[in-house]
Design a protein that fits this description.
By secondary structure, this protein is mainly beta. It contains three helices and 21 strands. The strands form four sheets. It has a nine-stranded mixed β-sheet. Strands 2, 4, 6, 12, 14 and 16 form a six-stranded mixed β-sheet that branches. The chain has a four-stranded antiparallel β-sheet with strand order 8-9-10-11, with no helix packed on it. It is globular and about 65 Å long.
């Protein structure tokens, strides 16, 4: 019987900017269960100043007050273990629903970060009002924009040999992929590297443009519901995803050209495994029919994702 769980972000259920195979799970579930995560976002350095109309949520205040150890920029809720998950398995993460849980978010520029840090050497933080009822946001300096919420960071525990990692860089465990296609209704597939898989989520984005060029999207608290399905022995080398309309293959590398090559090779492998095309035919098909987009250029390991429309080949 499938069970639904709820996990709030508290000092005891979060890690600040870290993935590590050694972290104990804060919740253990069965394959087929669903979990609603109530996630918060942001360190003290990006909070609204005193007197601002934007209030810091109590859950986020409690986390800041606890002064947790921190490496990277993301407050991650979890990890959640799935009974029976072992290295070599695949974890299917069905993204059932995502909703904003706050009435503001932020977008920040900080020194030595972003795509062109040499052009923007000073810190600049915008606190952006969110109208949840109308599903829009509006910066003080710009136009009203529709929301398209997704979690920038979703991942399992990395291979144990890596030790403790910053949440900044996406890798083969997933993590800070910042892929705006992963909205409600999409599905993420992650390779399992440790017993239990140990899934964590955070880095809520109200909306984002591909590239995420200034280093932030609309960073904000989101509540997301996920269903977890374990596939035994269905090993993946890298994360992949599906939307109702497209298959998504991904590449991550500090060199954007190499991230592109990885995404392309992943797509060729995917096509060859599912069709009668040879590798050279799949290569040509990618040039004819697959869209390759820059996911983000600001996380150290840059990202490229391929969009293969469903129904063209299979």
């Amino acid at each position: 019987m499938m069970t639904h769980h709820r996990l709030a972000s508290t000092p005891d259920t979060i890690r600040f900017g870290m993935f590590d195979a050694a972290f104990d799970p804060v919740l253990t579930i069965a394959s087929g269960d669903s979990v609603t995560f109530e996630c918060v976002s942001g360190g003290v350095e990006v909070m609204p100043p005193p007197g601002s109309p934007h209030a810091v949520p109590p859950a986020l205040q409690a986390i800041h007050a606890s002064d947790p150890p921190r490496i990277g920029p993301h407050i991650l809720t979890g990890p959640v273990a799935i009974v029976g998950a072992e290295p070599g398995d695949t974890l299917e993460v069905r993204i059932e629903a995502i909703e904003p849980n706050n009435d503001w978010g932020y977008c920040a520029v900080r020194p030595l970060a972003g795509t062109i840090p040499e052009d923007f050497p000073d810190r600049y933080v915008s606190h952006i009002a969110v109208d949840r009822a109308r599903s829009v946001c509006k910066p003080d300096w710009g136009p009203e924009l529709p929301l398209a919420p997704f979690f920038g960071t979703m991942g399992v525990a990395p291979p144990a040999r890596y030790g403790r990692l910053s949440s900044r860089e996406p890798r083969e465990h997933g993590g800070n992929m910042d892929n705006k296609e992963l909205v409600a209704g999409s599905t993420l597939f992650l390779p399992v590297w440790v017993p239990g898989a140990n899934f964590s989520v955070g880095d809520g984005h109200g909306r984002q443009g591909d590239g995420e060029v200034c280093v932030n999207a609309l960073e904000m608290g989101l509540t997301g519901t996920f269903t977890f399905m374990l596939h035994k022995g269905a090993s993946l080398a890298w994360p992949r995803a599906e939307t109702p309309t497209h298959y998504i293959l991904m590449g991550f590398n500090e060199d954007l050209d190499l991230a592109m090559k990885q995404a392309l090779r992943q797509t060729i492998d995917f096509i060859v495994a599912r069709s009668a095309l040879t590798r050279v035919q799949a290569y040509q098909f990618c040039s004819l029919a697959v869209d390759f987009r820059v996911t983000q250029t600001v996380n150290g390991e840059k990202g490229v994702h391929a969009l293969l429309k469903k129904g063209l080949l299979f």
